[in-house]
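Regression test case RT-17, inverse folding.

Input:
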């Protein structure tokens, strides 16, 4: 999930999945909503920082051609086992999200639940450019990240900060401020942004 392999792999090896806040054991409600309402068209999909693969498997079961990436080998083991149990046809790749190796305009949809807020400050621009690059023209990017309402933090964002970061590369169709009781029982606040890739970066 993060760009530090050892740190994240040790977390997945040391702790039970149910004790990890971001591992709910069920697909994220906002993802389910967008899929069930048909707001996201079925197509080639990239799940960034997929962790144990819950959202990836859900998308596969719903007919998406989905690839989940994570930097943790142990997380990939969990994800592959989950996919096999569900008989879901999905692909998992160990990859650093800052240095995406996929081709240009390869994906129709990028899903990002809690990936962006782990991007180091120095890598944010590169990350955003990478997501923009691998998305097809008009492709969807559904992002959820930490909100400033969780308290001060380098990766806790205001709505204005997110608009400033992403609006040069994506058309922001919707912004939501939400709360969630996470897997560790803690209530946390998030922003969810539904965006579409801009093909002409000179336009607003």
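Golden output:
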């Amino acid at each position: 999930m993060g760009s530090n392999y050892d740190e994240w792999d040790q977390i997945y090896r040391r702790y039970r999945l149910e004790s990890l806040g971001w591992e709910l054991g069920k697909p994220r409600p906002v993802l389910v909503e967008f899929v069930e309402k048909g707001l996201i068209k079925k197509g080639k999909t990239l799940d960034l920082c997929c962790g144990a693969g819950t959202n990836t498997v859900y998308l596969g079961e719903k007919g998406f051609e989905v690839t989940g990436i994570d930097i943790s080998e142990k997380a990939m083991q969990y994800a592959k086992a989950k996919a096999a149990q569900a008989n879901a046809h999905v692909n998992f790749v160990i990859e650093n999200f800052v240095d995406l190796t996929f081709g240009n305009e390869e994906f129709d949809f990028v899903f990002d639940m809690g990936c962006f807020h782990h991007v180091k400050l120095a890598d944010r621009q590169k990350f955003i450019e990478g997501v923009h690059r691998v998305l097809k023209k008009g492709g969807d990017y559904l992002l959820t990240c930490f909100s400033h309402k969780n308290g001060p933090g380098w990766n806790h964002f205001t709505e204005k900060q997110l608009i400033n970061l992403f609006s040069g590369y994506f058309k922001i169709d919707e912004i939501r401020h939400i709360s969630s009781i996470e897997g560790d029982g803690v209530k946390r606040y998030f922003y969810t942004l539904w965006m579409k890739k801009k093909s002409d970066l000179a336009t607003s």
